[in-house]
């Protein structure tokens, strides 16, 4: 991966998507082989230094009791109000935060006073406010509707702070991964495809299958990607 | 002192404590609690009487024993005076000792009897309370559960019930016996010698003062300890659940510092609380010992001067020893009783909650909305109304709803559904999709307007009846611990094994179930983690097949599983939908395309309706939602 690029990882449950992110963040170590950042094996860095370089948003957002400000300060302890609003804005969280009481609003234990989607967006803002090289999103967009999902990804790419950084997005929806520079398709822990949306749609059968299951034939045609061997949708694979 | 094991109090300990466990309506609550014991009234009175009897008898014991000493002493002194061999009236001593033995025996038997009666009464009382509580839970509206956390309800059902049974079991009788013991001791001391009794009474103000000073102090430290423990637990819990965040954001040092601070706070308050609360006993013992000494000296002098018998002094010494105890006990028990009444109040608070109305009565229907409704009928011609009734299976009419009064959500929702139609509900998060389902299932009732099922207001039908016609398949799959067979049969309890298997086949679940070693008898654990997420979904679909409802409510999963299972799920869903009227909170475009009617919701209301093609032409919210997934 080069700086400024976005890598998307797609695959079913248990295919190993989260494992890849956990390897990058060194929450686990590889059994063999190595993960390198700027040519250096991350096991040669201190965990502290590594965690200065990567920011991870988990699938299940965890917020801490305190205030919204204290939660965002997790990402950057000396963040200004302006930076905080900027991050919230990109994470599509600014609107509801503004409505509900701003940066000083209380966050209950486990973020119980927010809905699942709201928690997710606050957690994304916490990741975005961090000054780092690599931003990891572990299925963080699945709780968002298509439109919000798209706005968020667009905002990240437009953001001055983030556009030249590496973004790794794990997702299950085709719509979320389509625009990535590279898409990695996983199945049962193995990489079965790597490329752009267009190339994978032509050559990777697993990717095609995922597309067919999520989109109807007409949608596929609309995307200019008619797949001739598409089976009747609705009939189970025997 | 605090009742119960403080280590048991979880993360919410701090909250619970801050709320205060003081009773607000002390006497009314006590009276109400006693009403639960009405049918055990005679048992209660009986055990109080025998408890009293045994105390009165045993309080006498020192005095009687004293007379035995006096008999021996008199015998010895008389013999010494007359320079004879020592002769004691052993027959008298024997009869006295026998008498005391009988007293102790009676007090033992009555103690056992009393305790067993009280245990029965207290258990029966909380049994009734629990049953009422459970019945009440069934009648509480969903909104109650939305606004109260489970931990709190469970704590009322378990901890508060425990408090009550413990107090009824132990404290109630102890309070009576302590008072009797106190009064009895004073009485017998006075009958022996009022001068010596006065010496004993000096302890009363001293003990009172000690209790007055120490008890509030220890209570203060205890509540501080409890609060700090709650905070500490909260932090530990949070750090464990968020440990990945703490690690990857390099927050370990900060978290450790925070823990050290809270741990220190807890340590400081805990040792103070423990120290002060244990301080009371040595202090009491000290006061008591001083008094004992005074009694021995003064009593001894009196024996020498001949104004008091030796046996009486011995009895006085024994009374002095047991005198301070009832005072300490009573003051401790008052705290326990306070806490118990507070517990009872918390339980009664739930029992007094407003229940949901099962059916609207005719009187309720004739409210302010009546006028509007009759007006409506005049506007719509009568024939029009009848045809609407004939074809519309489900009809929402000017439905308005809000979860709380100061925040309106739904203001005016109108739409009709024909038999067999599939309705897709789409919209951004928070648009009111789930609310629509809540209203249909009558988890909540509309604030105004009405929902008609076959022309009849659903509030006129019993909830059970209404829900028997519907089945829900939610994206959050709920399965209980039990066999797969039991879980599927949950859809309709009287279905046969064959029917269940048939349903599982329809839902493509049979295939994976039969590959499991125990097949349909496989026991699912509580969170059903022993089967995959997709398989869990297939099971909930099969459960809906078993229920075989007229109306189906589906909440499509947002996160997909592996492609193969995904297809199985979709195909099972399509089979399930066939021939039924259905509402689908849809995320998949293929589902939305197939819908007869699409309701596009935003901020609580329906903003667009139509089918896929017509909605795209409108180029409104639907079109933008739809197109956002193709844009790169």
Can you offer a commentary on this structure?
Chain A: It is a multi-pass membrane protein. Chain A: It is found in: Cell membrane. Chain A: One of its GO terms (biological process) is oligopeptide export from mitochondrion. Chain A: InterPro entries: AAA+_ATPase, ABC_transporter-like_ATP-bd, ABC_transporter-like_CS, P-loop_NTPase, Type_1_exporter. Chain A: Keywords: ATP-binding, Cell membrane, Membrane, Nucleotide-binding, Transmembrane, Transmembrane helix, Transport. The complex is a heterodimer of chains A (238) and B (632). Chain A is an alpha/beta fold and 238 residues long. Chain A has a domain at 17-170: P-loop containing nucleotide triphosphate hydrolases (Rossmann fold). Helix content of chain A is 39%, strand content 17%. Chain A contains eleven helices and ten strands. In chain A, the strands form three sheets. A six-stranded mixed β-sheet of chain A has the order 4-7-8-1-9-10, with helices on both faces. Chain A has a two-stranded antiparallel sheet with strand order 2-3. Chain B is built from 24 helices and twelve strands. Among the domains of chain B are: 25-181, ABC transporter type 1, transmembrane domain (ABC transporter transmembrane region fold, Up-down Bundle), CATH 1.20.1560.10; 420-441 and 458-627, P-loop containing nucleotide triphosphate hydrolases (Rossmann fold), CATH 3.40.50.300. In chain B, the strands form three sheets. A six-stranded mixed β-sheet of chain B has the order 6-9-10-3-11-12. By secondary structure, chain B is α/β, with parallel strands linked by helices. Chain B has helices at residues 13-19, 26-35, 41-81, 90-139, 142-147, 150-192, 194-201, 203-241, 243-248, 252-305, 310-351, 362-365, 368-379, 382-391, 433-440, 463-468, 484-489, 497-506, 510-515, 533-547, 563-577, 589-594, 612-618, 621-627, and strands at residues 392-401, 410-418, 422-426, 448-453, 456-457, 470-473, 482-483, 523-524, 551-555, 581-585, 597-602, 605-610. Chain B starts with 12 loop residues before the first helix and ends in a 5-residue tail after the last helix. In chain B, a hairpin with an 8-residue loop joins strand 1 and strand 2. Chains A and B meet through helix 2, strand 4, helix 7, helix 10 and helix 11 of A and helix 8, helix 9, helix 21 and helix 22 of B.
